[in-house]
Design brief:
The chain is mainly beta. 9% of the residues lie in helices and 39% in strands. The protein has 1 helix and 7 strands. It has one helix spanning 12-20; strands spanning 26-33, 42-43, 47-50, 62-70, 73-79, 88-92, 97-102. It has a 6-stranded antiparallel barrel. The chain is elongated, with a radius of gyration of 16 Å. The protein starts with 11 loop residues before the first helix and ends with a strand. The mean pLDDT is 77.
Amino acid sequence: AVDFDKGCYLGQEVVARAQHRGAVKRALCHLRLAAATAPASGPGHAPVNAAPAAPAGEPGARLGQLVQRAGAHALAVLKAPFPAAQTPVEIGLSTETVTAFVLS
C-alpha cells in the first residue's frame, strides 16, 4: 500500500500524477514479433516506431523503447496515446528492423 501523507518514496511523482491528473504518460506493452524475423533473446533498448501500415499516427514516429525480448515476444515502454491491440509497430534493432504487433 502507498501512504499518500508520507513524503518522499520511490515513484512518488508518477503516483501523484496518476492520482491528481488521472493520466500516465507511458505504459508497459506486450508485443508479438513476426515469427520469421524474431531476434535472439536478450535485453532490448531499441527504438519502437510506428509502422508504415499503421492505421493511425505518423509512419516512423517514435512510440517508445524496447525493454526486453525473448523469442517472439517483447516488452516495450510506449508513450500515450497507446496503440490499439494488433497495431503493427517497427523495432529498430542494430542489424535490422523487425515488425511486431501490440498485444496489450
